[in-house]
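Incident log entry.

Two folding requests arrived from the same account within the same minute. Monitoring flagged them as a possible duplicate submission, but the sequences differ. Recording both here for audit purposes.

Request one:
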Amino acid sequence: MSRSGGGEPHRDEDEELEAATLLSGEDAPHVYARNPESRVLLVRLGLSFFLFGLINNVLYVIILSAALDLVPPSTPKGIIAFCNIFPALVAKLGWPYLLKGRIRYARRLIGCTACSVCGMLVVALFDTLSMRLLGICLASFSSGLGELTFLQLSTRYHPPSVAGHSVGYFASGTGGAGLVGAFLWWELRGLGVRLGVGLSSILPFIIPITYFFILPRPDRFVGRDFSVAEEDDFDNAPMTASYTPLPRGEEEDVVSITEPEAVVKAPIALSMEDKWRLAKPMLTKYMLPLFCVYLFEYTINQGISPTLVYPVPTRESHWFMSLLIHSIRDYYPLWQLVYQSTVFLSRSSISLGLPPLPGRLLSLPAIVQGVILSTLAFESAVGIFGDSDAREGWSFAFVFLLIAIEGICGGLAYVNVFYRINQEKHDDPGTDAERAKQEREFKIGSIGLADSAGILMASLVAVPTEIELCRVQVARGKLFCQSL
């Protein structure tokens, strides 16, 4: 990856070094502490960011899982998906680009918690469609704002191996939210919407508890010895610096910063020109690949997967399939389970110590996703292996494999994009420490609108896609999609 500070003449050397370190394993992001106290700090940091990702995203999954129970049968379920993503997009677009100055993490996270709790209580206590949609919008806005806030918070930690550690565990938590949220609603739905969603409103309180009582302060990591010292120099990683505390006052945040020259003499805020200068290089490097990945995978999940339905297998013909599929309505939940499981595994790749994708390959998951989308659409419309019962097992295995790869690509795209931007060096020598800190926070926070925009676009594309694929299936005599 090229340096953002005008290091273009050394780009080939940087890429060769990056490839060499990947092959040798030196680029592996896993960080090891050399003493027990440092190990405890890393465990607390990883646990905190895992819980941040898990709790921040789990309400989004619960709402989607409860969509059938939240609105009347005559209401299009797509309206739930829209209200569950559009406010998050507004938060990710508005906060990094429009707000200026220092981020007050404690205040923002308390606000996110209050917004989430209010949203879920509104959904639980009111039966009218308009009020429930309002509650969903509140929870969505909080989730979007929370996600970019936690990613920005990760930039406050040094050395780079520790900052990458926090991003890896946050991504793992967001991946686990898909499985945990679906399981929680499966257990709570028997209690009804009012009580089930009402109990879910307790979950956001885990975020401030984690922030104030588990998360270690960034200055606790300064000066400690970690085993991944060479990572400080790879791929534009942020420079490790000594800790100089800010003067205490009523405006001090709970999480202190770790740059030198941290005493701010005058308020500093990035202008719109500064933000555009920072965002412009990221459009094709980070945002476009992330947008495409989410556009493709959510089009698959919402528009194509519901039409990937086959006859119910018998024990005599397909004994393994018969253990998983008992009616044609079981296919779609199975595809979603496969997708969520592989997303969780791939989003956990950094936290498991696997090396990140090279910067030049960040667009690869989007390319693979595009191929998978086209292939699954063709399978749905035409039937690659035919519609005979004898070939049903081939079709099932083929779709199972492609959806697993889809989940892997989606998770890899998410964790690697945010890991790479977290590891970039933004502060040149002589740059004001407060300004450099705000630039790092803006850059990682501004990327989040790409995935939300992709999901929103997919929700608009998925409905006509599903209708057209079902029409084509009916035309060739396959009527399963009409009975769902």
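Request two (distinct sequence, not a duplicate):
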Amino acid sequence: MTNSKLKSKSQVDGAEGPDGGWGWVLVLAMFVSTSLVFGLMRSLGIFFVEFVQYFEESAQAISWISSIGLAAQQFFSPLGAALCNAYNTRQVVMTGGFLSGLGLVLASQATCLVHLYLTMGVISGLGWGLVFSPMVATVMASFTRRRALAVGLGFSSIGLSSFAFNPLFQLLVETYAWRGALLILGGLSFNIIACGALIRPECRSRAPVKVDSQGRLSLSDMLQRVSSYLEVSLLCERPYLTYTLGVTLFNFGYFVPYFHLVAHSRQVGFSEYQAAFIMSAAGVTDIFGRIVSGWFSDLGHFRVIHLLTLWTVLAGVFIMLLPVSSLAGSYAALMMISLLYGFCSGALTSLVFAVMPTIMGVERMMGGLGLLQLIESSAGLLGTPLSGWLRDITGNYVASFMAAGSFVLLGSLTMTTMPHYFSCTEPPPPQRPVLVHSAGTLEHLELGHSSESIHQTVVQAER
């Protein structure tokens, strides 16, 4: 009886959050920052055509700009998570905001593609990596019952900014050329610094540090601490690895329409503003998809992983239908499929992150999200250039979108191999592993845990 009470209390401590309060301010900060990260990233298709014409390079070579930026954002996410666990989330996000703006400002002075690879790709990508994971993990730690809705609201800005940014960027390019447009976007990105300032400093309990006789950290303790910051132990857990593989496959195809749909629309004969408006319209349904998906998920009628699989299957199908709908030159058909794709892509995004606490627990979200972004960075790096390469050898984007949709569907199939996938109820919340010596003393204290909750886990282990 005592054991069950301790177990129940431990699970609640690991899963419950304040469910609001200052958390809604953080949702607003996430709303603005994600619009200036992924909303901006989604709208770079406007610059794709300009870069092809100005630098006279292939579609594949230009595609590396956006792919390096996306891959850098995901690759550096573990660095952002580790810095947040070791130091201060507020300072990390503010630094990321500065770097994201700096990269775009420097990109406005580029004279060759390598300059764009380094500025828009590496520098801005590093900034985005320091912003995204910490903001998402901070918001998710502030909510429990309304977690999916809070994340959906925070991510809804991506669809809103996609609606606003595509025609805005087209206007800026026509008015100030692509250099002036990038300079303005860099100034906008500096607003992420203010979003980071809204994060309250956190108080964490720190593990006692082992030092040698000369007052230096021992190598084993240093490696253990780095492993703790990065949550490397998750790589030994099957549910996390399976989920990460599925999301990585999503990533191969998910961003292809945002980078190539405008170019495809112009290739089949639609005007510049017609092509830009297709992405804007998809951005509107993306907003509704994120909010509706988060709200419906929080009702608890279905497991979140099942809803995620539904939306990913539909998104994959609609990606494959995008080029088919425009083969006859019908703008209305292309617009309809784009609207449906926008809704499904927005709906699945909210749930990708809402599923993670059920796999690893809230207390390991920061490091777990960083590791996920690192692993899927390979897909972000290769997905769009693969699409550009298929366009170069076929002369159109039909094969590109077919391949992209196939990767999304394959990721959905991978999800079904997760443990307890076909169960109608959520499995028990996972518990953070705590290493205990044979004498019953703690080997180390994980960050974010109080000594009381750790003691309870030790008592359970001993019994």
